[in-house]
Amino acid sequence: MRLSHRPAATAAAALLLAGALAGCSTSGGGSDGGSGRGPGGAVQGAAGKAFVDRFDKPVAKATFDSPMAPGAKVDIAVMGLRVKGRLATLTLQWTPHVTGSANTPTPYRLNGEHGLDASLIDAVNLKRYVVVSDSASRNLQSDDVLTNLPNDQATLTTHTFAAPPENVKSIDVQLGSWPAFRDVPVER
Description:
By secondary structure, this protein is α+β, with helices and mostly antiparallel strands. It has helices at residues 6-23, 107-110, and strands spanning 60-65, 73-84, 87-97, 119-122, 127-130, 155-162, 170-174, 181-185. Residues 1-51 have low confidence and may be disordered.
């Protein structure tokens, strides 16, 4: 009887992912007041090396109407689109302004209970980039249905895409049913 390497590989991958997620936590103990952040606001990894960029100000922002409730609005800020290797990570900041709803805002609810379907539109190469998936077919992004966005408070979400080619210096960002953010700089 021949044993398969697949269960061992799956278990190793799960442990590696769990360890990586535990290392990425922004809450927890430490001399930084429990934020997990070091000098300059960067999240600290092994040996004190920063592995998350600090966002001082948005590269684009807008306020949109939301069908979640009468008079509801949402401020969406693009905090950055950063390329590392063959991936690009889009970081967004959401600040919902919703009154008269018993539900907590989420990107899904703010978008009229439709998927966010975040995408990058490359006018140079005439391509649309969609969020990439891992080997378990899970999209590498914050969950737009389950991510709670406290009312009148800023919350960050991320979406990971295949990186556009080097010749692409800016790109359009499409989120849900709202107008696209034009010419968002691609940071390398």
